[in-house]
Amino acid sequence: MIDAIGIVNFEDSSVNVKGMSDFRSIPAMSFLGRYRIIDFTLSNMVNSGIDELSVLVKNKPRSLIEHLGNGSNYNINLKSGYLNILYTDNNAMSDAYFHDIYVMHSNIEKFQESNAKYVVISPSYMIYRINYNDVIRAHEESGADITCVYQEVNNANQKYIGCKTIDLDKNGVVTAIGRNKGNKKSANILTETYVIDRELFVDLVEKAPVISPLYSLIDVITSVVDSLKVCGYEHKGYLACINSLEEYYDANMEMIDYEKASELFDPDWPIYTKTNDSQPAFYSKNAHAKNCLIANGCIINGDLENCICGRGVTVGKGAVIKNTLLLPECYIAPMAHIENAVIDKHSSVERKLEIIGKDGKLAYVKRRDRV
Predict the structure, then answer these.
(1) What is the pLDDT of residues 182-208, one digit of tens each?
(2) Does domain 282-365 have CATH number 3.30.43.10?
(3) N or C, which end of the chain is more exposed by having fewer CB within 10 Å?
């Protein structure tokens, strides 16, 4: 076990997966037809040996809470650990006031009463694999007050738009925190994962509302860059930021490629999720599936290429579907033609049989809509 509390943080108001965010929080969104986005952060913590876990909840919590349950699906030792859902009963004056520090401050006793030495904070809308033991070791060796995990990328003009960035000096000390506006190819993308001494964390959370009630955690860290030792820890490997519908689509579709999927998935680093007992996928004699990921419970009667199907998807005879995400329990009528689209959960394509995203713009069918 690591001597640390794990906190899964929620996204700020700049993150918006258009359409899908109307129905559930981003950490509760389906990924690859089997997982939820939050599964990757929680699995990183559990696999690293963190048993004391807290998930901050902002809005639309129902599907997330149902998915998390009591934490037993995540291999947490519930005799020595726990999975807490942290929220606030107080209504913030506006969205500007309802940020992560607001929720942390409302639950400050949880962190004050802990005996853990460190706090590990990681976001629920970024997907990557990391061992927090390595980050804590680097944190101790550097003598840092705060350690920030970042990744150097060379496609910041195309991806990670809106993500936070950091500048570092030659010793790996953070000198500035900014935001990726897409005007530079190279950038140090901040994964919003931090290691902080618990007592310092409590002190910062208590002081933040005094400085400004609008301060979020990133604002607090930015404000102490010059007064505390804030160091960077470089992560290498796969990184996805789910902050738009396009990024959500791309992150899913990348996993069809075996080499790319191998960067995220490792047999020795399991990704835990809520299990679902259902029958295997059924393929009729008329079905064809090329380069697809298809979950259990699906009934496939049509032609699929470069598609991901969630649990319980039904595709009718003669339907042709390409480059599309079909979320759980959706229905595609016979002879439908769908390309470059996201078909949300429990929706049905029955009357408008041609749905094609064009010119780099995805087509999207809302949850439970019959079109």
Answers:
(1) 999 999 999 999 999 999 999 999 999
(2) no
(3) N
